[in-house]
Amino acid sequence: MTTTPSPDASTGTLMTDEEYGALRASAALWAGTSVLITDRRGRVLIQHVDYRPTCLLPGGAVDAHESPARAPRGNCARNSASR
């Protein structure tokens, strides 16, 4: 199945499930982070990505130079429009 972006998503790289799995499997060790961000009303921030049909919590890979504790801040900053 090929995933498609949501109508309001920016243009990016589309991957089949097999391509996405191969990309993840190509690394000997892969670590990632997710963060749960809420506002005072309890609404949860979600991220629309162009490579999955569902929404995700903000986050991403832990880069080689990052510690797992610092990665969420870097990932959120890189993926948000409100830096």
How would you describe what is shown here?
The protein has 83 residues and is of the alpha+beta class. 22% of the residues lie in helices and 7% in strands. It has 2 helices and 2 strands, in the order αββα. Strands 1-2 form a two-stranded antiparallel sheet. The radius of gyration is 14 Å and the shape is globular. The N and C termini lie far apart (34 Å).
Helix content: 10-25%
Global structural class: alpha+beta
* Mean pLDDT across all amino acids: 76
The outline comes out as: globular
- What is the count of helical runs? 2
Which sequence of SSEs, written as H and E, runs from N to C? HEEH
Q: Order of strands across the widest beta sheet?
A: 1-2
Report Rg. Answer: 14 Å
Q: In percent, how much strand structure appears in the residues?
A: 5-15%
**Tally of strands:** 2
Distance between the termini: 34 Å
Q: Which consecutive residue ranges, at least 5 long each, have pLDDT under 50? A: 1-9
